[in-house]
Write a structure and sequence with these properties.
Blueprint (H helix, E strand, L loop, with lengths): L13 H12 L7 H5 L6 H17 L2 H24 L5 H14 L2 H4 L7 H21 L7 H10 L4 H14 L7 H21 L2 H22 L3 H22 L9 H27 L1
């Protein structure tokens, strides 16, 4: 077996070392098969996953975890820059230059003669400069026949799909694209559910994927009508499911294989009742 240790990149600048490591992973002759298969599109789930893991580390106040997760997110940036560089589109230096220039433009109170005495003033400056940048870009393009759609596409591009759906739903409703009453929303939910069932029954996974999205988007509209937050609701469900599931696992010694659905359902309902009782006792203690 060949000794590849001499091929391990080494550089006094840590960022350049990372760049060299990624370049080695993407080397057509000596690189990693998995890394070589990746594209901007295939890496989207990993970018989102790493960003969420960074946020989770921040919430838990774990510096060791945060450093590691920031590294994982940085890897995604370097990977995307490398993929673009291979096609001579842009590179990591270009990414760094672009964000540096943007920060300088949007902080005239730091890098020029602007003034900002508090964070609200900074926010106004940022939005003013950003609006001017967008107007400049728009001035170089043909007028759009769908300005609201274009505005929303730009606004939600950095949001998770669930949050983006709520943003789109609110703006479209405000513009007049709205049901007359809640009954119309429920009819739409049922319509989309029926279409999802038909798509699944047809065996067309691509069509089923589209219909699943339609169901979720319509449920976001239900949340909007009722003043609910779908992200908060789903996060709560995730937490409750894992809490109950962990109790089912514990009751079975960590082994769910070979258990009947009837037994699993019984343990699930028991876990649900235990959590409800514990919550009731905790609430009483807090009120005492």
């Amino acid at each position: 077996m060949a000794d590849n240790t001499s091929a391990i990149p080494n550089h006094p600048d840590p960022l350049r070392k990372l760049e060299a490591v990624v370049a080695r992973l993407r080397d057509p002759d000596r690189g990693c098969p998995w890394d070589l298969e990746q594209t901007h599109q295939s890496l989207v789930p990993y970018v989102l996953e790493e960003a969420h893991e960074v946020a989770n580390a921040i919430r838990h106040g774990d510096d060791v975890d945060l450093r590691e997760e920031l590294g994982d997110l940085l890897l995604q940036v370097v990977l995307h820059a490398r993929i673009a560089d291979e096609d001579n589109r842009f590179n990591l230096n270009g990414v760094a230059d672009a964000i540096s220039d943007k920060l300088i433009r949007r902080h005239p109170h730091v890098f020029a003669n602007g003034e900002a005495s508090n964070s609200e003033a900074v926010r106004r400056i940022w939005e003013t400069v950003k609006t001017a940048e967008q107007a400049d870009r728009a001035g170089k393009q043909k007028p759009s026949p769908s300005p609201l759609s274009d505005q929303l596409a730009s606004k939600v591009r950095g949001q998770p799909a669930l949050a983006a759906a709520m943003t789109i739903s609110k703006k479209a409703a405000k513009a007049g694209f709205e049901w007359d009453d809640m009954a119309g929303v429920w009819e739409k939910v049922q319509e989309e559910l029926d279409e999802l069932k038909e798509a699944i029954a047809s065996g067309d996974s691509s069509h089923a994927q589209d219909e699943l999205g339609d169901v979720l988007f319509t449920l976001v509209n239900v949340a909007r009508w009722c003043g609910l937050n779908p992200e908060t609701g789903l996060a709560g469900t995730n937490h409750r499911f894992l809490d109950r599931f962990s109790r089912v696992e514990a009751a079975l010694g960590g082994n769910l294989q070979g258990q009947s659905i009837k037994q699993l359902e019984g343990l699930w309902q028991k876990a649900k009742a235990e959590i409800k009782a514990e919550t009731t006792i905790s609430n009483r203690s807090n009120m005492a």
